[in-house]
Every structure is written in C-alpha cells, then in structure tokens.
Write a structure and sequence with these properties.
Rossmann fold, single chain, six-stranded mixed sheet, 169 residues, alpha/beta
Amino acid sequence: MNRVLVIGFGNPLRGDDGFGWEVAGQLERRLSQESSVHILTPIQLAPELAETLTRYDHVFFVDAALGDQPGRLILTEIAEGNLDSGFTHHLDPQALLASARILFGAQPRGRILTVDGLNFELGQGLSDPITRALPEAVHLLEKEIEKILGDDPEAQAFAQTNMEVESDA
C-alpha cells in the first residue's frame, strides 16, 4: 500500500507564506478518513523531518514563493539532490529528501506544489489571488493522492507528470 505525506510549510503570520498551512488544513479535513495519508504543518523544514520521510512512498510539499503571476500553481517533481550546503536549522525539500536517502536509505518520491505569492509581510491572512487559488490547489492534490492510492496503473503513471496550473486568480 502506498503511503502519502503532505507537508504544508511556511509561516501563517506572514501573509501568503501561510498558503501551505491552509492547503494542508483543508486536505486534512477532506481526507481525515484516509489512513494512508498524513499531513504535517511545520513553519520550516527541519533536518529532523528526514526520519519521518522514511515512512512514506510519496511526499508532497506545499509552499508559496515570490513569483510574477500571483495565484499561479505549479506542481513539480523534485529532482534527486545532494546536501551541498550541509546541515542547517532548516532545509529545502530537495535537501530534506536527500537527507532521508543519505542518512536512512529511504527514497520517497517528492513533488512540490508552489503558488506564486503576492504578500509576505507580517500579518495573518492570504492575499486575494492566493485565496482564489486555494480550492484549485486542494483539488489538484486530492486528485494526485487519489491516483497514487488507486489501483489503476495508467492513473498512477499520469500522477508522475509535472503540471502547471493557471488559476483564475
């Protein structure tokens, strides 16, 4: 059985940086009965999470980043990487996956869903374009997770592609 981890990370006290938390919270409510899916909401990706990744076959990271098209969603496969920068207090998704591989021999498949954010200033709440992108982000991840957990090999193969989604934001 495939096990899926969703990590919605960022700081919900810095505007659109709370996008990962919002998506994770909505997914948690929608998938609460699914025992093969677990959801975490850290502020940053700490090295200690590498051990957690060893228990999963697939990991979805959800984050906001500065971009030129606020509300644009991009789902990307995370390429295998190394720990070029060594250990710090936090890692990026590629380095965290590399840590799980190097330290524990685990190789979960990693993808990241990123939204182009607009406002990262202090304050709670998402900007309007990011709020409008939320339903599409949740739907996209929900469908990807369904494909992974399903028994249809064609659907699982489709779940392995990179996607860029233009939201109506």
